[in-house]
């Protein structure tokens, strides 16, 4: 770690990281969730701490504990995650949205535990869209003259319509963030793996060489890139 003025360092910078997977309540004991392990977010928090940053971790459900030394804001649902991220945003220099935010939540949360009935009718769960937290952060940031760097993550597969890179470029444009970390997923690449490969896409159209290695290697690359953008 270099002196505070060192180019590329996050010394004294405020870094907010969302991590883990949100859980969307169905009733007091059930939820809709996802398989996010939270490991990438924890690696980002560790890497930011190692660079001397002041780290706020907005933490949804994760399989691994948060590192010591960061401020942890526990959340469960996407709505709670949004509130926590937007609250931290004004004081944030770098926001990294590593959380797996549920796209939908049950339209209604039953006040009491849902029960089976004998009349043969099974429940139908209606879903509604959750807010796009990353997009909202970008819009909130635009009202603020101070320089902030906002980073999103996207796991993409190719399909008939486009390859992963094209999907990611479209997503980056739609979100309006500065950087999108593209993780190409396929049948041999599974959520929760300890090793990964990503490409960093910039809003200006440039892209990094592939970054391969542990989630910590990816975290270091993402934060180094964010620090460069911050000091630009
Ligand atoms: N994200 C978010 N709020 C949501 C959904 C996603 O802030 N409601 C963030 C994620 O944390 C991630 C980025 O947006 O950093 C991309 O997530 P992704 O699920 O790939 O994007 P979506 O816009 O939900 O697109 P898709 O329909 O492909 O799931
Ligand atoms: Ca999504």
UniProtKB/TrEMBL annotation:
Superkingdom assignment: Bacteria
Keyword Ligase included in the entry's annotation: yes
Known EC number: 4.1.1.36, 6.3.2.5
Q: Which reaction does it catalyse?
A: (R)-4'-phosphopantothenate + L-cysteine + CTP = N-[(R)-4-phosphopantothenoyl]-L-cysteine + CMP + diphosphate + H(+); N-[(R)-4-phosphopantothenoyl]-L-cysteine + H(+) = (R)-4'-phosphopantetheine + CO2
| Cofactor info, note text | Binds 1 FMN per subunit.
Query: What does the UniProt keyword field contain?
Result: Decarboxylase, Flavoprotein, FMN, Ligase, Lyase, Magnesium, Metal-binding, Multifunctional enzyme
Q: In which pathway does it act?
A: Cofactor biosynthesis; coenzyme A biosynthesis; CoA from (R)-pantothenate: step 2/5; Cofactor biosynthesis; coenzyme A biosynthesis; CoA from (R)-pantothenate: step 3/5
List positions binding CTP.
103, 113, 131-134, 153, 171, 175
Residue ranges of domain DNA/pantothenate metabolism flavoprotein C-terminal in the record: 10-227
Task: List required co-factors.
Answer: FMN; Mg(2+)
GO biological process terms, alphabetically, are: coenzyme A biosynthetic process; pantothenate catabolic process
State the family named in the UniProt similarity comment for this chain: In the N-terminal section; belongs to the HFCD (homo-oligomeric flavin containing Cys decarboxylase) superfamily.
- What's the protein name? Coenzyme A biosynthesis bifunctional protein CoaBC
Q: Which species is listed as the source?
A: Arthrobacter pityocampae
Q: Which gene encodes it?
A: coaBC
């Amino acid at each position: 770690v270099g002196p505070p003025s060192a180019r590329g360092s996050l010394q004294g910078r405020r870094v907010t990281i969302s991590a883990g997977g949100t859980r969307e309540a169905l009733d007091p004991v059930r939820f809709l969730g996802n398989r996010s392990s939270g490991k990438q977010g924890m690696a980002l928090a560790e890497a930011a701490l190692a660079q001397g940053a002041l780290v706020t971790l907005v933490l949804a459900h994760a399989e691994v504990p948060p590192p010591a030394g960061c401020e942890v804001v526990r959340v469960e649902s996407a709505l709670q995650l949004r509130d926590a991220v937007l609250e931290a945003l004004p004081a944030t220099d770098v926001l990294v949205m590593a959380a797996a935010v549920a796209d939908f939540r049950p339209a209604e949360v039953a006040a009491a535990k849902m029960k089976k009935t004998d009349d043969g009718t099974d429940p139908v769960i209606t879903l509604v869209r959750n807010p796009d937290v990353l997009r909202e952060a970008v819009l909130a940031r635009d009202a603020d003259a101070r320089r902030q760097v906002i980073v999103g993550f996207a796991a993409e597969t190719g399909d008939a319509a486009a390859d992963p890179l094209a999907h990611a470029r479209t997503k980056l444009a739609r979100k309006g963030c500065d950087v999108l970390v593209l993780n190409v997923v396929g049948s041999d690449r599974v959520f929760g793996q300890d090793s990964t490969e990503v490409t960093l896409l910039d809003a200006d159209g440039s892209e990094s060489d592939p970054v391969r290695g542990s989630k910590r290697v990816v975290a270091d690359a993402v934060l180094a890139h964010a620090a460069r953008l911050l000091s630009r």
